[in-house]
Amino acid sequence: MAKSHLSGIFIVPVDGVDNVSELGGSEAEITILNRRPPPATTHDTIRHDMPKSKSKSKTKPRSRPASGKTSKNGQAANAKKRTTPRSRVSAESLAEKQREISVSEFFAKNRHLLGFDNTRKAMLTTVKEAVDNALDACEEANILPDIRIEVFQISETRFRITTLDNGPGIVRKQIENIFGKLLYGSKFHRLKMSRGQQGIGIAAAGMYGLMTTGKPVLIISKTSKKKPAHEVLLKMDTAKNRAEVVEDTEHPEDDKLFPDGHGTQVAIELEGKYQKGRQSIDEYLEQCAIANPHARITYITPGNETVVFPRAVDVLPEEPLEIKPHPKGIELGTLMQMLKRSEENQLSGFLRSDFCRVGPGKAKEIAEKAGMTGRTWLTKIGHNEAESLYQAIQDVRITAPPTDCLVPIGSRALLAGLLKEVKAEFFAASTRPPAVYRGNPFQMEVAIAYGGNLPADDLARVLRFANRVPLLYQQSGCCCFKAVTETGWRNYNLSQSRGALPSGPLVIMIHMASVWVPFTSESKEAIADYDEIRKEIKLALKECGRKLGTYLNRRKKMQRESERRSVFERYIGEISQACHAITGTDAEKLYQALFKQAKRKTEEADLELDDEGKVIDDGGRLSDDEDVVILEERQMQIGELDEAPGATLFDDSSAPVQRKKKVLRKKKKRILRRK
Amino acid sequence: MAKKKKTTTKKKSPPPRSRSRPRPPMTRKKSPKRDRSVVSKKRDRETLDKIESLAVDVTKSSLAQRDPYLDIPLRTTSNTKWNKSKRLLEMGASTQRRNLFNLGQAKKFMQTILLAKGCKDLVEAEKTLSLRGMYYMSLHTIAGTKEKTFAEQGESDTILEDLEVGLDSLREELHVFAKKRGTMIGNITIIDNGDEIDCRRMGTGGYAIPSICEPSVIQFKDCEADFVLHVEKDTVWSRFNEDRFWETYNCILTEGSGQPPRGVRRLLHRLNKELGLPIYCLLDCDPWGHYIYSVIKQGSINLAFESKRMAIPDAKFIGIRSGDFERCELSDDVKIDLTERDIARAKQIMAYPWFAEKRPWQKEIKRMLANGFKMEVESLITKDISYVTEVYVPERLADRDFLD
Q1: Which domains can be identified in chain A, with CATH numbers?
Q2: Which residues 6+ apart lie within 8 Å of A408 measured at CB?
Q3: Which residues of B touch A592 (CB under 8 A)?
Q4: How many CB atoms lie within 10 A of CB A457?
């Protein structure tokens, strides 16, 4: 704990707090000062609201003292303790202290926004960003991903995380930008399904490493067999949001690191804490393997164990297509910016080429509704025109955005992933047709696993994924979680208390595929709660729930039948004995007669019809369902024996152990009795 | 099986009772236990035949690959009929079929057969057992399982009642008795299993009324009493006994500890029918008191098949009456508020056909509901310790102020 405190020193204390400690003020003062730091002291004020604003309009310095004045009046009463009277500060002197803040500085101070709130989470976030980038790169280059992650413990609180992939590699001159600059990347300005979005992740991880250990990031990348591998040591300059190259070496062409001839390795040293269990690196990689059955992931733990998540599918997912924004999905400000940036000159061309789903007809309709024509020059469109244009877009009916840009995991692959990592007896998956929120197409997929070795008394586990990336934190703030709790699981023979997750041996996996996943924060931990998204999740959950309900019903029925048979068998012995005592009829003969009848009766009952009027056979309706997998008990037992390493997180591992103990105890007793 | 337990219905009158039979001479102080009357033996033979025929039915249908079943008369309100002319509750003809090959009934079927066997053994051994004894007699673990034949005594009790009605035999004929309850004292001498008992010399405890009060067990020797006063509870009975009420007013005092058990009801019935004594009841002024009166007078729903042997249509209700609060000028302290349940029960009782046609009773219950409170017999103690024995009952008797 002491160490993690140490790392906290890097967070420069907020200005207001400094003052308070100087003044020794009361609590009431602290809150006030925090809100509005007195202008007389430090002026490194961070303007959270506009971190990137470069324009220095002249009105700004003037407006500040004005607001400062009211604050002074407000403070007059509280500030009576002050010994020296406060002197007025001129706008000019204030202006001297006002300067631009770099993105990296902002995020260095607010690293919790990126998922570096504590040392344990920082480790996970680093692995996550590195793996996401590796998978994205491999898929874009059409390479089946083979990723190796090593978490090496240097000292108690210091780790080195090394990620190696077989991706396309990075050309030398981009290395600084990608790893040294926040908000630099290929993914922000396009609408295409990918794991990364803003280009913050890996650079932020490097920055965190540098801040906590002072060690630069080591990158080795090779783009092809014929080209040399570059080894670069990078240090980030937060003030300039730019990277400094510490060392740059070229390696011979036959680099052993990259047997395929291409790939990237990133090594980051950082303060961290390694802990297994929920929200650990282990769990993350395991879920990653479920959602990316086409990837092979090798993980070397701090304990120097090697865990391999093998590839379950040998086909790469289809390449997602990039789409243009949908007119209904943008806001007025964005529209004005697009107008300014467009390469087209006239309105009709702009609408047709910068948006999807707008043809000449629609373009004309929009233009006319906005009081313009298709030939209106873009340069003539001012604020008022843009607003009426925006309104026109809202009023016109436009086809939903194309959905072929989405590549869901697919029911079969989902089931393959789950089967590989979860030891259950019943699996069902459901893929919803694509839908749209705020002009962004998205698609939901749900898979559930039930029974088997899953812990029976706990609440269900929800595994959340967004574009194949597992989400481990902020479960209760996520749209997926809400959808699960709002679904009535009791309809499907599960128990559920009000407003809670269902309970039982159940794992629910929810995947959202979208060109733009609406996360609640930059650390990408929870999906925002859009009605359209929640509705789709619930529909998919219900579909899976129905299948599970059918299965459970059938299982219950079978249980009932066998119970019924045993009940009869139990009682007819008694009855034949008693009748024998009363009437003298041969008990054995009577028993046989009754037994025969009991058998006949229960067999009739076995042949009951299902709700569709068909005779229920072995598999029932579910056997025809492509999206359902049922493991018979015998297979499960075999599966238990050759348990794959790394699959332990999902098992109720304590249960089998207990069972064994009991057996041992029984044996002991038996031995004692014999003696 | 939600249905209430079954009850016997065949309305055949019970086997010839020894009611009018001349009593054996009283000279013998103790009759040897082995000396069983011819009638008893004959009755046992009949009982055994019935048990056997039940088992034979089951055996036959089993061997013929037919579904074995037992038909058990229903002991529910719906299967109870009010016989207006006889002023009795009688059991209807509905029966419930109990199948072996029905998941919900299989266990009960087995239990019924087990108890039938138990009764047969009992009758053959010429011994009697209590309900609890019967439970233990048929209790064992089913071979090859951990399940017991009966989970608790309650299960065997209801099955035994089923058997009673199903075989159309009385409990006594099956040689089973219930826990005894109820006390008697007064101007009468009886013979209980050959022992002469003078009920005038029973001290403070009184004579404990046995569970079986059939003429074969109990005979009346000499009785000088003019009437029988039945009170609800032991506490009130003690008050009357201590004040020697039965001596002063020449009567018999009985008590049934709440809802009177079969023995008490049978005894009252015989005192009324055989000795012609009128029966007066002193019960609480609440729905439960009213229902006790109703059971004494026309029989209970559960034992409707025994009404003929137990009901006393001429019984009278002395009190406590709802008007007694004003008449006896009682203090507010004795009021006990009627609960929701009391009100519901009172309305239910009012609607019973045997109450519905009696104006005074309708008035009585309505007045209690209007009062909004109930009263116990003990409330009269607030007037004076012996008010009930010295004033209340004597006044009512003198005025012949009863509810019928």
Answers
A1: 2-80+88-101 (no CATH), 108-309 (3.30.565.10), 327-395 (1.10.8.50), 407-557+616-669 (3.30.230.10)
A2: A431, A443, A445, A511, A513
A3: none
A4: 8
Across the interface, whether the CB atoms of B101 and A570 are under 8 A apart is answered no
Give the integer Cα–Cα distance in Å for B115 and B125: 15
Q: Over 90: is that where the pLDDT of B272 sits?
A: yes
CATH fold of B38-177, please?
A: Arc Repressor Mutant, subunit A (1.10.10)
* pLDDT tens sequence across B73-99: 888 888 888 888 888 888 888 888 888
Q: What is the 3-state secondary structure (H, E, C) of chain B?
A: CCCCCECCCCCCCCCCCCCCCCCCCCCCCCCCCCCCCHHHHHHHHHHHHHHHHHHHHHHHHHHCCCCCEEEEEECCHHHEEEECCCCEEEECCCEEEEECCCCCCHHHHHHHHHHHHHHHHHHHHCCCEEHHHHHHHCCCECCCCCCECCCCHHHHHHHHHHHHHHHCCCCCCCCEECCCCCEEEECEEEEECCEEEECCCCCCCCEECCCCCCCCCEEEEEECCCEEEEECCHHHHHHHHHCCHHHHCCEEEEECCCCCCHHHHHHHHHHHHHHCCCEEEECCECHHHHHHHHHHHHCCCCCHHHHHHHCCCCCEEEECCCCHHHHCCCCHHHCEECCHHHHHHHHHHHHCHHHHCCHHHHHHHHHHHHHCEEECHHHHHHCCCCHHHHHHHHHHHHHCCCEC
Question: pLDDT tens digits, residue range B355-371?
Answer: 888 899 999 999 999 99
Q: Taking residues A85-89, what's their average pLDDT?
A: 80
Write out chain B residues lying below 8 Å of A599, CB-based.
none
Query: Residue B344: which pLDDT band, with cuts at 50, 70 and 90?
Result: very high
Section A103-116 average pLDDT: 80
For residues B367-390, one letter each, b for 16 or more C-beta atoms within 10 angstroms of the residue's C-beta and e for the rest, the string is: ebbebebbbbbbbbbebeebbbbe
Architecture of domain B183-399 in this structure: 3-Layer(aba) Sandwich (3.40)
Specify whether the CB–CB gap between A298 and A195 falls below 8 A.
no
CA Rg, chain A, in Å? 32
Chain B within 8 Å of A225 (Cβ-Cβ)?
A: no
End-to-end alpha carbon distance in chain B = 38
- The alpha-carbon gap from B2 to the nearest alpha carbon of chain A, in Å, equals 19
Q: Where exactly are the structural domains of chain B?
A: 38-177, 183-399
The pLDDT-based confidence of A74 (bands split at 50, 70, 90) is very low
Q: How far apart are the first and last CA of chain A?
A: 56
Q: Does B292 sit behind a cis peptide bond, omega within 30 degrees of 0 on the bond before it?
A: no
Check whether B128 has a pLDDT greater than 60.
yes
> CA A250, CA A205: separation in Å to the nearest integer?
24
Place of tokens 């007119």: A327
User: Looking at beta carbons, which residues of chain A come within 8 Å of B56?
Assistant: 583
Question: Inter-chain contact A567–B58, Cβ cutoff 8 Å?
Answer: no
Average pLDDT over residues A383-396: 89
Q: Which residues does B contribute to its contact with A (CB < 8 Å)?
A: 51-52, 54-56, 58-59, 62-63, 65, 67-68, 100-101, 103, 106-107, 109-110, 113-114, 116-117, 120-121, 142-145, 147, 149
CB nearest to A594's CB, from B62, B117, B120: B62
Torsion angle, alpha carbons of A296, A301, A307, A308, to 10: 10
Among the residue ranges A53-67, A116-130, A488-502, B286-300, the one predicted with the least confidence is A53-67
